[in-house]
Design goal:
Elements: H1 3-15, E1 20-24, H2 31-38, E2 46-55, E3 58-67, E4 70-72, H3 74-81, E5 85-88, H4 91-98, E6 114-118, H5 121-124, E7 128-132, E8 138-143, H6 144-151, E9 154-155, E10 159-161
Parallel strand pairs: 3-6, 6-9
Antiparallel strand pairs: 1-8, 2-3, 2-5, 4-10, 7-8
């Protein structure tokens, strides 16, 4: 659990005068459960996946952020970066790149080797985004426009309907 990630994140949001609030809650396993606890829609959840893109001389770690009610098309992420294959990072790699466990990763990259990409649909559907903020017991609900302004992400259409 990363208190440091939470502190870095909230400091960044305050510095950039973002409109946000912190919600303390019990640990919840699924996106549906945590959305209910937060009082938000599942699609407001910003799901952050740590991926590795390889092939064609490409070797890149990526933080791919999409709505929690969608699934990632890993092939589209590889295609965008010129690689041939994208896989999810191991728990060890996730910890090294984010200082967080699966499920607690905020949609922000604080590591220079971790490239941030965001599916545009995340920024188009709701006025606020919700995400775990370094721990499984604490979430941030953030104005969507503030998020886009602060992170200035590469927009890549890689989300698809959940199966």
């Amino acid at each position: 659990m990363s208190e440091k990630t939470f502190e870095n994140l909230t400091a960044l949001l305050r510095e950039n005068q973002a409109c946000f609030r912190v919600v303390e809650h019990p640990t919840a396993g699924k996106s549906e459960e945590v959305a209910k606890i937060r009082g938000t829609a599942i699609g407001q959840g910003a799901k952050a996946l740590v991926c590795k893109v390889k092939g064609n001389g490409v070797k890149q770690a990526v933080l791919a952020v999409l709505p929690a009610d969608k699934q990632a098309d890993l092939g589209k992420i590889a295609e965008y970066l010129g690689g041939t294959k994208t896989s999810l990072a191991s728990p060890k790699e996730v910890n090294e790149l984010t200082d967080c466990v699966f499920g607690a990763i905020p949609p922000f990259s604080f590591h220079p080797a971790l490239k941030l990409i965001v599916d545009p649909s995340l920024l188009e559907r709701y006025d606020e985004l919700a995400f775990n903020a370094g721990t499984l017991e604490r979430s941030v609900i953030l104005n969507t426009q503030d998020y886009a302004r602060i992170v200035e992400p590469d927009l890549v259409a890689f989300a698809q309907a959940a199966k």
